[in-house]
Every structure is written in structure tokens, then in C-alpha cells.
Amino acid sequence: MNQVQQGLLPPTLAEKITQEYLLQIRHLSKQHPEKLKLDPHNLLRQIRFFKDSSKAEIEAAIQLLKEHHAPPEEIVIRQGDTGDSLYLIMRGVIRVIREDDNQNIEVATLMAGDFFGELALLHHIKRTATCKAITPCILYILTKNDFEILIKRFPNMQKIIFEEARKREEK
To answer: 0.85 exceeded by the pTM?
Structure first.
């Protein structure tokens, strides 16, 4: 239950906050249109662990990814749930929210080229944050089994993902 539903946040303030977020999204989309949509090859090239991969390796990775279309407001992953996949953002904006002491804290706003869900995948722990689609999103899902296949193919990938996960845990 969110703060508006609990009566902790006046509806007018909630509407004002929502409008401010929408304004920020419009601003982002005008400032960085290339960040809102990528083709799969370019998306993978922007992710650190694929930067130096050959065209054949990128093609192999694309074959393992499953596409998911998330409409605005969809909760893609929920804090506390068991996680067995990593998500790559091909198009759209995802907001990362962490619930702490019954307060929702915005941790990050992610766009095309970013990824999320790696902490639960790597450490076999519950999801540490909720990730919600703010705009229509196209996501690629990499399951744990497919992730293990890629690690064998890209030996440096696991190290780089662990480094990124460590940085995010520190935030």
C-alpha cells in the first residue's frame, strides 16, 4: 500500500509529484532521444560486459534473451520477491524504488542500455528493490540458466557484473 492509499500523502501533493516526474521524463526524452530506444546489437554493445564481444558472440547472446513489453506503471520486479533473471532495457524508462521503514525511496532512474535485477541473480537473494516501468518499455530478460551459458562464453562477464552489483549495493 502506498502513502496516498494510507492517507499519509495528500492527493494534491501526490498529483503534483506525479506531474513533476512526467515533466522530468519529457525533458529526458527530449535531451537524450538516443537513450530511449536502441537496437539489440547496440544495446548489448553499451553494456560493459559485451563491449569487446565479437559480432558472433553478440548474436549468440541475443538468441538467449527473451523480449518483454512492459506498459507504464507495470511492476517488473518487486522488492522481497525471489529473483532468477537479469533485465536489460532496450527502450523506455524504469524507476528503481527501495522500501525502507515503510517509505519508498527512489534509488535510480534507468534508461536504454541500463540493466537491473543482477543482485538477486548473482547472490541468490530476494530482490532488493522494486523496478517499475515509467514509460512503455521493451526489456530483454536473461534467465539464470542462460546467464550461466553466457558466463562460460564470456569469462569476464561475471566479474564485471559482480563489480556493478557491489557498487549498487553500496548506494
So the answer is: no
